[in-house]
Amino acid sequence: MQDNATEVTAAGIARLAGVGRAAVSNWRRRHADFPRPVGGTEASPSFALIEVEAWLRKQGKLAEVPLRERVWQQLAGHPQGPVTALVHAGCVLLLIHERPTVWLDVSAGSDEHLAAMLPDALRQVLIPRFGAMHSSSVHTGLTAGGSSSVNAPASVNTGLPAHSQPPAQAVGAVNTTPAPATPQTPVIHTPTGPQLLLSAPLLRGAAELAAELGARQAFEFLLGRHLDANPRQYTLTPADLARLMADLAGPARTVLDPACGTGALLRAVDAHPGQELYAQDSAPDLAALTALRLALGARAAVRGAVGDTLRGDAYPELRADAVLCHPPFNERNWGHDELAYDPRWEYGFPARTESELAWVQHALARLAEGGTAVLLMPPAVASRRSGRRIRADLLRRGALRAVIALPVGAAPPYNIPLHVWVLRRPGRTPAAPEVLLADTGRFAGEARGGPDWHAVGDAVLDAWHAFARTGRLEERPGLARSVPVIELLDDDVDIAPARHLPPPAVADGAEQLTAVRERLRATLRLTDDLTPPPADPVAPARWPLTTVGELARGGALVLRTGGNGGHARVPVLTDHDVLAGTAPSGTLPESDEEAVLTEPGDIVVPVLGGGSVARVIDDVTQGAALGRSLVLLRPDPTALDPWFLAGFLRGTANNRQASSYASTATRLDVRRLQLPRLPLDEQRRYGARFRALDEFERALRQASRLGEQLVRGMYDGLTDGTVAPD
Fold first, then answer.
1. Number of Cβ within a 10 Å radius of residue 94
2. Residue limits of the DNA methylase adenine-specific domain (predicted)?
3. Distances (CA, A) of 122 to 95, 115, 116, 210, 528
4. How far is C-alpha 561 from the chain's CA centre?
């Protein structure tokens, strides 16, 4: 009965069957027995998952729904909403993780038995982990603003005196005692029997997934899929950036994230027994999911809270060894009028437009003496006139230790180079304080592929550790230097790194330009040699045709789709890399789904954008993870020549007939792409010509890049005086 409550969209059906959405639309038109919609809208209907599964099996289009996909569809179509479903699943996965035998006893019966017994079983885990639970009937579900009101324990004693208890509700430490409930939204609440009855199929599926992957990995998979499915609802901190910020903070026994979001920063901390992780967020759904995520994944004690940190700090007496924070940017309604006399404004009262400087001072106020805070900041905070007095005081007193400019594309918003500020709670002001300024813009990836995080991490951490040891850093042209504070204390107090770093050493000087010119000449000669010979006119060929879908069903090739990061940190081949012919440059969030890794001879095809492009993987690009919006074809070399396959897939007419069009994008159904049925020897003849064309295309791209570099270098050299006009 409960399975019928789970609904799935056309996109979900396409994922179940491994086809494009156009195929699902065709099935609805052509098959009178296709399941009728049970919800959604006319433009985007939803269907009962159990009816869809039965129809797909009847049609021979589905042997068995993959476990991960089945559980995800149960979560996504949950009648109480995916956030509530995630919280229910997270509670059960925590029970499985910590008391697996209790779960086995509870689940050995009907769904009704499970729903009746599970609340008491969950309390055996949730109370020791998060403190005493307060049962309530608070509505759970997405609000009009898109956040979730998730039931949670009303509050938990933080170990502070009674008069110091915060207005927000904190949950977390083992052996805590409950404080009186307050009207604010609690963090996590033991679900009731009726709520769990609706979730019973999902919970059993999540338990199966935990048996296959582990409880932590199962929750990470479900949470990751939810975040991917709702990209506009959450501002995420990329895993590589979170790891860099945690490394800058260094080892710490107590770590606070006062704007925890989905918990990425605290998850990046190298947690260990005896450590304490403190989290707070104003969004109830994020606070609940983060608490469960950290409890499942960290060996440290977890303390979570829900509430507006600036207006209602959950940890007013905390003095942490480290604070990590990705605060909301450009927030006008941060409490300026109510908080004018707050003791946290030790370095000056922030202007209404300087919410980020309020977060900076909150972080400093929660640090122990000598502790380190690392915050992600928009670049405007480094130079806005309204914040210059606070910046000046942070510098004078030695609190601000480093400002690091990240490459464009490091984190949302991806079109600007964000900054990382490193601050320390000063014990005493150094006699001649200096501040580290670094700019890693040179490590930006091409197009939207993301930065070279390995290079960014090496450069930043090397500079920071050298600076932290001595308080000074020798100039690293174009990358980093330590600047005496006195040089920054002018009328503007502008601490943007790009304005204080020396230019790169002669990298674009006359000698370098000469080398670029020679490389361009050699490339142009190669381009001339590779120019295809004149084509003789011939009558159009009439070959018997087949499709990629038919070849896949016949075993002549394997078809895979990308988008999973896996556990290993490997380069990611993006659709932009394929279109531009560049090396793998992207990143994907860590996932418990296995990444698709490329092998020599694979063909990679972008499915969005309307371009006729297919790239053959060589020894240089092998081993990369397949990114989103890409399909990989792995041909059987005894049946198909890869260059023959890639060449025919690039035909303009071929792509046009296999594409579908929406209001904002063109999508390619790779299975519908056609190619002729030819003997292998004939395929290789065509493959050799297609390979020669590919080499010619690469040479043209290289010539274009070198030409742009030469022109840019000449302009820069002429304008800065390093190149003479004659």
1. 22
2. 218-441
3. 6, 11, 11, 17, 72
4. 18
C-alpha separations of 522 from 518, 694, 704, 705, 706 in Å: 6, 18, 13, 13, 11
Q: Which helix (H) or strand (E) holds 371?
A: strand 367-377
pLDDT in tens, 191-205: 889 989 989 999 999
**CA pair distance 521, 161, nearest whole angstrom:** 76
For residue 327, what are the CA distances in angstroms to 57, 267, 375, 664?
A: 48, 16, 8, 32
**Which has the closest alpha carbon to 691: 632, 616, 640, 613?**
616
Long-range CB pairs of 344-352, under 8 A, 24+ apart, other chains included = 347/390, 347/393, 347/394, 347/397, 347/399, 348/389, 348/390, 348/393, 350/387, 350/390, 351/386, 351/387
What is the rounded CA–CA span in Å between residue 495 and residue 404? 10
Question: Residue 628 corresponds to which tokens in the numbers above?
Answer: 């989103």
pLDDT digits (tens, 9 = 90+) for 553-572: 889 999 998 877 776 667 88
The single-letter code of the amino acid at 639 is A
- The amino acid that residue 307 corresponds to is G
Sorted by sequence, the CB contacts under 8 Å of residue 13 that are 6+ apart come out as 24, 47, 52, 56
Q: Taking the CB of residue 164, how many other CB atoms lie within 10 A of it?
A: 11
Token pair for 354:
């300087």
Contact 630, 562 (CB under 8 A): yes
Give the separation between CA 611 and CA 604, rounded to whole angstroms.
13
CA distances from 206 to 102, 119, 130, 263, 532 (A): 16, 17, 22, 21, 57
- Give Rg (Cα) of the chain: 29
Q: How many whole angstroms separate alpha carbon 702 and alpha carbon 683? A: 28
Q: Which of 317, 269, 322, 319 is nearest to 294 (CA)?
A: 269
Which residues, at least 6 apart from 305, have a Cβ–Cβ distance to it below 8 Å? 166, 168, 169, 170, 171, 172, 187, 278, 279, 280, 281, 287, 314, 315
Beta-strand runs (E) in 378-495: 400-405, 419-424, 434-439, 480-484
At 661, phi and psi to the nearest 5? -125, 130
Give pLDDT tens digits for 270-291. Answer: 878 889 999 999 988 888 899 9
pLDDT confidence band for 164 (50 / 70 / 90): very low
- What are the tens digits of pLDDT across the range 117-143? 999 999 888 877 775 444 333 333 333
CB 319 within 8 A of CB 363: no
Return the amino acid letter for 561: T
- pLDDT band of residue 170 (cuts 50, 70, 90) is very low
- Kindly report the backbone phi and psi dihedral angles of residue 301, in degrees, each rounded to the nearest multiple of 5, phi listed first: -75, 140
Yes or no: say if 152 and 281 are a contact pair by the CB < 8 Å rule: no
Query: Whole-angstrom Cα distance, residue 6 to residue 73?
Result: 7
> Do 406 and 450 touch, CB atoms closer than 8 A?
no
Q: CA torsion angle for 693, 699, 700, 704 (degrees, to 10)?
A: 160
Strand bridging mode 625-626 / 572-573 = parallel
